[in-house]
């Protein structure tokens, strides 16, 4: 027996067939989880650093617009109408004579709020539907998959137009507030999250460690929250990060179509929508919000990509 | 129907224990698992069934190792899942100390689970990658808090690590920091945590390197002696099964073809399938290459969704006759050997049972 | 171009049959993997050779470098991260590492074939088996679709797939594991290679099917007088079919011997330990001997002999000097042809 109970100090590290298992010598005895490993890996990726800096900057702009501009975005003066960029107004003025720079800064908040909240709501709806369907299977899954497919069948824009058309402000005008846009986009956007979650849960559910927990007599909630969920949430987080960018773009689309956020509220979509009609008179009111929108969407998609790569076990 | 009950009786008699070992700790009777084959998406209708396990019976005694061998698809892993109640049996009973555990649920089932634990095949998927070793081995105590008081758990986990030959300081590490053999030790430690009486081992060493297999086998034997454990050891490697088992059952297409002590099965097999299986195992001895008779079976294992009539082995059997296609052979002492006090007189489900030593032939 | 006539039981002598000496000669091969964690030295000076009609078994555990060596021979090493840093792979007198890509591909396609462990993932699931077999003939010999199919059926007959003509249009998933492995063998045979490299060809199969496939492989090898390199971890399979054995550990050959000799009198503690640690079908043993510890990390191979931390015979010299593969002799100095051991204490191991 002496052989099997040998001191565990003996050569701990091991070389595997072709692949190489990271060495764990007794010196660097820090314990790291997979997530910690991924994080360590992330901070070395240039794509993550760039997107991270951009996103932090955007978040600061959204939270504290006054740090970046002292000009009231709604203090418009028609005498400046369509004036180009200058020392006093870096991005120039729009048709109404409002400061484009100030509006772009103030518009960030609404765009980010829509992006973040919509993603969180879709994450909750999609995650829940996916977990329940994937974990319980059978008729629960059949029903939830059916519902998911029905929602998938709705054309996103059409559905959004139909829903948002029913929102009116006090004056009876068609006007959807920020929250209405968030709810609408969540309702039409949770399905892919549900699919991703369902697939991941179904896969993890097969794992022997879930069977092991069951044979220990673990309750359903323990299996779900301690074993299945932590191991299946990663792809959902990745999809969510990527779709955050898409949602911000969708908000701009809705505002552009005139059914999303409406003036006097400001968002990048609202600004683009207002500027597009007067391209012949000047490009700058269109260019600056569009540029910000593109950078933001790109930053979130890059972040999502980096997160996915870091968590992909095949790449480690 | 009359024939069926006669079968059951014979089976019950057949698998009974060698004398003088007291009540068996586990009695499996006519266990069946049929997976329905369905068609249609919304309105499913059953078009057939995969008979993964189709009437398996055996006893297990305190401190004993029962090996179950067979090729892939013979249903041996499903038997493990049924014994663990991870699958619901279609029919049959599993008595643990006289209590049928296939009918249990809720609290009663949870209580029984304390006594029957499992070691899995794949050490890479059987440990939750997001839990530390301490959490993994300590989880049984979270689920059954009566086993260890809260303050005592860390010490218990460290004790278990020590028992399976791992450094107790590894308690905060994650599974991916260990090699396959070490992970299998962690899995064994988790299985031991609740002080079970029975451990079901489903191919516990087949994923490990040759030089590490021996370490884990030795560990399992040591633990068996120390804790008086009973093992059901399921594997496809006949050499390892012989090494560790007291009794061995050979499965083919969801049924037990032959069952007996390791000597009866390996030195005096009477079922043609057992003989073919044993003769096909390569022996690490080139001298034996010339002397051994090899029975090379033709064809593949038939689909368990559509097994042959009569004896399920007849399609690949060189002895098959008319009778084999009409009559299901009963697992019992074959008539020719009945009443004789020889090793060949053990339970074998063949109409034309005949002793043939293929391991030492020549 | 040789015509392929599978009906003749004795193959016609082929070009190159006059070539004397080893078919394949691997000399001092070094392969490393450059990974983020560091450089993993997977193969550290491997030399072996195979003659026509001979079976060389390369035995080793995971991480021993046995498969990497084969990948280097076939030129299918993933580069990066894998790089051949030193050595020669001489096939019929020509160093394949110095060949142009085009030449190399020609040799690889028609002279050396490889059989993998997992037949299902090696076959294209959306093409019929007959089409995939026939492709060899269409591409390399310019046969028509119809002719190629006839050849495919012949090949399937050759590897004893029942009702070949009826099953030629079936898809890989419609065959059982054993039959798929036969199809792989048929593909490898299609162009009548001189050498077949089989990487764990039966590991995924059941014992009864494993025996069928190994028998088929041995039979075809005899018939075509091919060289066979059998890569495996299974000491039993090796004993059944090999002529000579090379045992690998941490990227080196630690022992080399004709098959009977190796099992009777191992000359390296690792081989000896392996043989003692496997349970036997024909013996009910007591406690198994177990080699202590774990296979080494290729990023940090122990200094001196890589096996020293696990070796019962290890001494100071083992921790400092890398043992070279030296010829093994009888106690009185008589030559033991074909035997070699890379152990400082081989004399004690084989004779003590």
From TrEMBL, chain C:
Cell compartments where the protein resides: Cell membrane
SMART domains with a match to the protein in the record: AAA
GO molecular function: ATP binding
Domain ABC transporter: 26-275
Alphabetical UniProt keywords: ATP-binding, Cell membrane, Membrane, Nucleotide-binding, Transport
Superkingdom of this protein's organism: Bacteria
Membrane-related topology note: Peripheral membrane protein
Main location group: membrane
Cited InterPro entries: AAA+_ATPase, ABC_Ni/Peptide_Import, ABC_transporter-like_ATP-bd, ABC_transporter-like_CS, Oligopep_ABC_C, P-loop_NTPase
Family recorded in the similarity comment: Belongs to the ABC transporter superfamily.
Protein's recorded name: ABC transporter ATP-binding protein
Organism, scientific name: Streptomyces narbonensis
């Amino acid at each position: 027996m002496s052989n099997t109970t040998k001191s565990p100090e003996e050569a701990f590290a091991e070389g595997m067939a072709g692949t190489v298992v990271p060495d764990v010598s007794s010196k660097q005895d820090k314990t790291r989880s997979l997530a910690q490993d991924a994080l360590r890996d992330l901070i070395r990726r240039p794509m993550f650093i760039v997107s991270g800096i951009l996103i932090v900057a955007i978040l600061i702009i959204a939270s504290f617009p006054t740090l970046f501009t002292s000009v009231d975005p709604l203090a418009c003066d028609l005498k400046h109408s369509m004036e180009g960029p200058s020392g006093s107004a870096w991005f120039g003025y729009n048709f109404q004579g409002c400061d484009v720079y100030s509006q772009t800064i103030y518009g960030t908040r609404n765009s980010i709020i829509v992006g973040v909240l919509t993603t969180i709501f879709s994450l909750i709806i999609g995650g829940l539907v996916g977990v329940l369907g994937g974990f319980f299977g059978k008729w629960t899954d059949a029903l939830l998959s059916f519902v998911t497919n029905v929602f998938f069948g709705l054309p996103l824009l059409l559905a959004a137009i139909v829903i948002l058309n029913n929102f009116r402000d006090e004056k009876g005008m068609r006007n959807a507030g920020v929250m209405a846009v968030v709810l609408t986009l969540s309702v039409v956007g949770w399905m892919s999250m549900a699919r991703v979650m369902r697939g991941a849960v179904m896969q993890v559910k097969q794992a022997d460690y879930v069977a092991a927990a069951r044979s220990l007599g673990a309750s359903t909630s323990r299996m779900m929250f301690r074993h299945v969920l932590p191991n299946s949430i990663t792809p959902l987080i990745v999809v969510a990060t990527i779709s955050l960018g898409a949602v911000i773009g969708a908000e701009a689309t809705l505002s552009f179509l005139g059914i999303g956020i409406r003036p006097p509220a400001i968002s990048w979509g609202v600004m683009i929508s207002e500027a597009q009609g007067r391209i012949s008179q000047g490009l700058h009111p269109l260019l600056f919000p569009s540029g910000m929108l593109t950078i933001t969407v790109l930053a979130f998609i890059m972040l999502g990509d980096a997160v996915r790569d870091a968590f992909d076990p095949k790449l480690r | 129907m009359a024939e069926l009950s006669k079968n059951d009786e014979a089976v019950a008699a057949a698998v009974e224990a060698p004398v003088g070992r007291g009540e068996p700790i586990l009695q499996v009777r006519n266990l069946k698992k049929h997976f329905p084959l369905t068609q249609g998406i919304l309105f499913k209708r059953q078009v057939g069934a995969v008979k993964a396990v189709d009437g398996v019976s055996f006893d297990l005694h305190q401190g004993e190792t029962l090996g179950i061998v067979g090729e892939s698809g013979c249903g041996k892993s499903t038997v493990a899942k049924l014994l663990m109640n991870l699958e619901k049996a279609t029919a049959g009973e599993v008595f643990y100390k006289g209590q049928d555990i296939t009918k249990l649920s809720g609290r009663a089932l949870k209580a029984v689970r304390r006594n029957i634990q499992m070691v899995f095949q794949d050490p890479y998927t059987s440990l939750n990658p997001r839990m530390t070793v301490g959490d993994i081995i300590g989880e049984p105590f979270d689920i059954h808090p009566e086993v260890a008081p809260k303050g005592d758990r860390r010490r218990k986990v460290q004790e278990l690590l020590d028992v399976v030959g791992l450094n107790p300081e590894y308690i905060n590490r994650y599974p991916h920091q260990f090699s396959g053999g070490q992970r299998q030790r962690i899995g064994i430690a988790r299985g031991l945590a609740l002080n079970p009486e029975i451990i079901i081992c489903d191919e516990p060493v087949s994923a490990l390197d040759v030089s590490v297999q021996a370490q884990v086998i030795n560990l399992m034997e040591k633990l068996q002696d120390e804790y008086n454990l009973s093992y059901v050891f399921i594997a496809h490697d006949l050499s390892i099964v012989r090494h560790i088992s007291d009794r061995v059952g050979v499965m083919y297409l969801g049924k037990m073809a032959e069952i007996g002590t390791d000597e009866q099965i390996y030195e005096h097999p009477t079922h043609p399938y057992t003989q073919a299986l044993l003769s096909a195992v390569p022996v690490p001895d080139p001298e034996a290459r010339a002397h051994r008779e090899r029975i090379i079976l033709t064809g593949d294992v038939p689909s368990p969704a559509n097994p042959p009539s009569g004896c399920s082995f007849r399609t690949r059997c060189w002895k098959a006759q008319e009778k084999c296609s009409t009559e299901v052979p009963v697992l019992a002492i074959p008539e020719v050997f009945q009443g004789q006090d020889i090793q060949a007189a053990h339970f074998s489900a063949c109409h034309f049972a005949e002793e043939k030593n293929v391991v030492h032939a020549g | 171009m040789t015509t392929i006539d599978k009906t003749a039981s004795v193959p016609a002598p082929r070009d190159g049959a006059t070539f004397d000496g080893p078919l394949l000669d691997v000399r001092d091969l070094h392969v490393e993997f450059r990974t983020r964690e560091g450089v993993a030295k997977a193969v550290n000076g491997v030399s072996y050779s195979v003659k026509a009609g001979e079976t060389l078994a390369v035995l080793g555990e995971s991480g021993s470098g046995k498969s990497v060596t084969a990948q280097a021979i076939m030129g299918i090493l993933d580069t990066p991260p894998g790089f051949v840093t030193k050595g020669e792979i001489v096939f019929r007198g020509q160093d394949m590492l110095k060949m142009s890509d085009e030449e190399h591909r020609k040799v690889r396609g028609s002279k050396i074939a490889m059989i993998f462990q997992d037949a299902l993932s090696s076959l294209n699931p959306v093409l019929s088996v007959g089409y995939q077999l026939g492709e060899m003939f269409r591409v390399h010999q310019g046969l028509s679709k119809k002719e190629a199919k006839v050849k495919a059926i012949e090949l399937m007959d050759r590897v004893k797939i029942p009702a070949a003509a009826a099953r030629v249009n079936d898809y890989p998933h419609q065959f059982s594991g054993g039959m798929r492995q036969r199809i792989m063998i048929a593909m490898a045979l299609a162009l009548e290679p001189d050498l077949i490299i089989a990487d764990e060809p039966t590991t995924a199969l059941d014992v009864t099917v494993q025996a069928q496939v190994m028998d088929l492989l041995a039979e075809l090898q005899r018939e075509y007088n091919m060289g066979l390199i059998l890569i495996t971890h299974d000491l039993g399979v090796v004993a059944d079919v090999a002529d000579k054995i090379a045992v690998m550990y941490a990227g080196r050959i630690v022992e080399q011997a004709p098959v009977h000799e190796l099992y009777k009198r191992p000359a390296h503690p690792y081989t000896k330990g392996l043989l003692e640690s496997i349970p036997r079908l024909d013996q009910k043993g007591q406690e198994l001997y177990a080699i202590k510890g774990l296979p080494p990390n290729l990023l940090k191979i122990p200094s001196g002999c890589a096996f020293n931390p696990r070796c019962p015979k290890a001494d100071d010299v083992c921790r400092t000097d890398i043992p070279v593969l030296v010829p093994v002799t009888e106690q009185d100095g008589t030559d033991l042809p074909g035997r070699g051991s890379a152990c400082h204490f081989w004399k004690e191991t084989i004779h003590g």
